[in-house]
Design goal:
With 422 residues, the protein is of the alpha+beta class. It contains 14 helices and 16 strands.
Length: 422
């Protein structure tokens, strides 16, 4: 996509001040005052017609001493990089009417207006999804095309019957749009003494670039070591399980949007019916609702274990222990109403075998019918339950499973107030 960069001149000073003010007031900069201070400083420099140096920003914005050495302190580079990302996120959610966007050119510390010459650039919405997501969607579409060509009526009728079941009905038979959320993992870089990325890090407490930015604000010394690379990765089981889910959705003739945990927004959780597929450890912001006070289950520190609060039983996955032969894993299927009358369906597992088994059960007519009978026998709400399965795995493949825990869920305890049914 071709781009033009225009320096901000005196007549445009007012425009940049207004644009910076809109960005600051949008809330996109987060709770940290650092980015607001940095943006104000760059705006002041732009109004004065100058491009500040890294050392100037370190002293004037980050209160560094005159002895500041950029070779050993990357706080300015990291913060400016994060501010660029916040600009991108702002314009993804608030497209510019005139095609001009405020930007900080790579390798510089000045504000400019960027103009997208390519009309296609104006069609982008939200932030750019991970590269793997586009490739995955393309592969799944290809598989669905093949299935469409070679499908048989019996398979279609089975998929339609599954889609019309009580388990799936609230998700598919509704006027709300459907969103499939695939559990991915945010990873960031660790820098060596020379400022180069020496290794990649996955931290369960840091699940997005925003989380990393907040961490660096509260612990600025870590800015010398950590760097946001805009990378996520997808477990193998999520890709395999998604194909089965899309067959059910396709048979129901329902349109679907696919996103990742790292791209999920709070507003999506109110405006969409949500299907989650992936590791329990990749639930992100969903984890507090899946394991709410209504749930009998709690997640252990390693995310490879669950505990039952009612019975005291421990469910520990053996999938992560290096050994040959069979092992135990766990798959979870959970369904509950959302905060605005929408519906959530959680298909998760501690490791690959658990995720695959949960995906197989929820897309198999026998598995769905058995789950429906279990919900009926519990005398609870068929749209609010959790079911945990012990899975026999071998070489990351699910072989067999049996139900080890089932309980109804109280929708009010999940969200803290009554659910509004529309």
């Amino acid at each position: 996509m071709a781009k033009q960069i225009r320096n901000i001149k005196a007549p445009e000073t007012e425009a940049i001040l207004l644009e910076a003010k809109k960005i600051a007031e949008s809330g996109i900069l987060g709770r940290s005052r650092v980015y607001g201070k940095l943006l104000s400083y760059l705006t002041l420099c732009a109004s004065e017609g100058r491009s500040p140096k890294e050392a100037e920003i370190a002293v004037d914005v980050f209160d560094k001493g005159r002895e500041f050495d950029s070779n050993h302190d990357s706080v300015v580079r990291v913060s400016v990089h994060n501010l660029r990302q916040k600009f991108e996120k702002y314009y993804a959610e608030n497209p510019s009417n005139n095609g001009l966007k405020l930007e900080i050119p790579r390798g510089e510390y000045r504000l400019v207006f960027e103009s997208d010459v390519s009309p296609a650039g104006k069609e982008l919405s939200r932030s750019t999804p991970p590269i793997w997501l586009g490739a995955l969607i393309g592969l799944l579409i290809l598989n669905l095309v093949v299935l469409f060509i070679f499908r048989d009526e019996q398979s279609d009728s089975v998929h339609e019957a599954i889609g019309q079941s009580q388990i799936w009905g609230g998700i598919l038979n509704d006027t709300l749009p459907l969103m499939v959320v695939v559990g991915d993992y945010y990873i960031f870089g660790e820098l060596d003494e020379t400022g180069r990325v020496s290794r990649l890090i996955r931290d369960f407490e840091i699940n997005s670039s925003t989380d990393l930015s907040d961490l660096l604000v509260y612990e600025p010394d870590l800015a010398e070591n950590y760097f946001n690379l805009d990378l996520t990765y997808l477990p193998r089981s999520s890709a395999l399980g998604l194909e089965n889910l899309l067959q059910i959705i396709h048979a129901a003739n329902v349109s679907v949007q696919i996103t990742s945990t790292s791209e999920l927004r709070v507003s999506d959780m109110k405006s969409h019916n949500i299907i989650y597929l992936g590791y329990i450890s990749a639930l992100g912001m969903l984890i507090d609702f899946v394991f709410s006070p209504s749930s009998d289950l709690r997640v252990g520190e390693t995310y490879d274990e669950l505990s039952n609060l009612q019975t005291g039983e421990q469910y520990i996955s053996g999938a992560g222990i290096p050994k040959r032969g069979e092992y135990q894993d766990y798959g979870l299927i959970s369904s509950f109403p959302g905060p605005s009358g929408n519906q959530f369906l959680i298909i998760a597992g501690t490791r690959d075998a658990g995720v695959l088994e949960a995906a197989d059960l929820i897309t198999d007519i026998n598995g769905v019918e058995l789950l429906e009978r279990t919900t009926s026998n519990s005398a609870g709400d068929a749209s609010a339950f959790e079911a945990l399965y012990r899975v026999v795995g071998f070489d990351r493949t699910n072989l067999d499973a049996n139900l080890v825990h089932f309980s109804s869920l109280d929708r009010d305890l999940i969200w803290g107030s009554e659910v509004v049914v529309q």
